[in-house]
UniProtKB/TrEMBL annotation:
Upper taxonomic lineage: Eukaryota, Metazoa, Chordata, Craniata, Vertebrata
Membrane topology according to the record: Single-pass type I membrane protein
Keyword Calcium found: yes
Occurrences of domain Cadherin (ranges): 16-101, 102-206, 215-314, 315-352
Subcellular compartments: Cell membrane
Signal sequence range: none
Major location (coarse): membrane
Name recorded for this polypeptide: PCDGE protein
PROSITE patterns (UniProt xref): CADHERIN_1, CADHERIN_2
GO MF annotation, one: calcium ion binding
GO terms for cellular component: plasma membrane
Amino acid sequence: IGEWTLPGARFPLEMARDADLGSNSLLTYQLTSDPSFSLSVKQKPGGKKQPELVLERALDREKLSSFELVLTAVDGGEPARSGTVLIRINVTDANDNPPVFSKSLYEARVAENLPVGSPVLQVRATDADVGSNGRLSYSFSNVPDDVLSLFSIESESGEIRTVGPLDFEEEKKYVFGLEATDGGGLTDHCEVQIDITDENDNAPEIAILSLSSPVPEDAAVGTVVALLNVNDPDSGENGQSYELSGDEHFSLAVQAGPGGDQRPELVLAKALDREEAAFHELVLRAMDGGDPARTGTARIRVTVVDANDNAPVFSQAEYTVRVPEDVPVGSTLLTVTATDADEGLNGQVKYS
């Protein structure tokens, strides 16, 4: 901090992080007592608290060239837990102009399929000083690990580039802080907001919510055989169209789900006959409205259960046998046979 810095100047400090939840993660900050400095806590969007070091009175490097303060973060648990960080303040001389960003907020909008290594935006700060006191370097300021895994900043130019693949379905927006530091250690801060735009990189997903199988062969036409759900993680007006192949005995009726998802129903369109086909193999395809379109596929097997819709049939309509009049009692005169196309008990034949 330069000795010319006016009282009331604020310097953002690193925010503490607590992996617990609820009251166990509520943090309060304390600073060791020093007449030259005090601690202020700024409420940031989202409920986070940003500790700031406030200069209370003018500094004199010739009297005292450095300070060491301890910042303590205490959580709200029982018992409370705390963490500390040492703040070393060097009083610098002659560097009387801090860096100034051209904007307090830089915004960019990029597609999720942006290749790794692509430029996103460039920030710029100026410093009225000359020489090393006016030479600036750019860096991230207290950003989470997921931002560091996706973006980098060139320290001299302030250009931000991608270093990892973006995914709109995973995160739609990134907001993080940047810091410009001059050769004398003075800094300015800004925020960067990068909005990720959606691309049609996901195929529709078909889920079978319920399937009535086996289906009685005497089920009425119009019976709902299966309830399906089709969801596409992509955004926008990428509505689905459908194609059912495999059998004319079934058709699709499309209903709207509670979240706007489309829910096709597999409906019996033609009377079944187990003796003709004991099962039916169907293929459902869902195509989204993207360009190019993407397709999701589901295979459905419907088994047909027997109904007693076939009568027994004798192998002959009339049997004739010649029997001698002296044939012994109990002799077998003739064997007749009848068959039934049904299965199980429905196909067991009794004679009388």
